[in-house]
Amino acid sequence: MTDQLLLILELFLTFFYIGIFTFGGGYAIMSLIQSEVVVAKGWISESVFTDIAAISQMTPGPIGLNCSTYTGYEVLKNAGAGMVVSSLGSLAASVAIVLPSFLIMLAIVRFYARAHNTPIFKSVMTALKPAVAGLIGAAAFALMFRFNASADSVSISVFRENFPDWKSWVLFAAAFAVSYKFKNSTIKLLLAGGLAGLILY
């Protein structure tokens, strides 16, 4: 039990850290969560995180918060905790991920009206735009490929759990093309992808 409580504390600190250094919303946060929880800590596997990412997109609410909630639960469950303690893991991760933003906004909201038209503020926002695009791209890349680096070589391989056969690549390509060309509703795209998955598999 003590180990599980320490894990909840570490989970809280990890997601608080992620919350501090995340700019650009839910999709930008995904790569940081994956990097900390899967790569750095090894709490859950890549395939489990991919499932969490998919569920987070399909459930109502902000994707970053959803992902944190599900991840917190899964980390404790993977450590052998019961439903109640795993729920505490969800609560710890959820509170920790939003707490930095809440505290920062609480501190600067009184100054925003005066600062938002200043050259410095505009420059900072302009500089953050490519960083946000990069984080979102990194999230997509991290869910698709495994990056292995050593002193001698660097290799990139496709996650077989995410793309097991040619049909999964067809679904991915079709979803990307439809989303890019027609700018369809995300809900319609998810429903169409689910239906196509049921038919193909």
Q: Roughly what is the average pLDDT, rounded to an integer?
A: 82
Determine the fraction of residues in helical runs and give it as a percent range: over 70%
Give the spatial strand order of the biggest sheet. Answer: 1-2
Which structural class best describes the helix and strand composition? Answer: mainly alpha
Sketch the major β-sheet. 2 strands, antiparallel
Number of strand elements: 2
| Number of structurally distinct domains | 2
Please supply descriptive tags for the structure shown above.
201 residues; mainly alpha; 2 domains; two-stranded antiparallel sheet; 8 helices
Write the layout of secondary structure elements.
Blueprint: H1 2-20, H2 26-40, H3 46-58, H4 63-78, H5 83-115, H6 119-144, E1 145-149, E2 154-158, H7 166-182, H8 186-200
Antiparallel strand pairs: 1-2
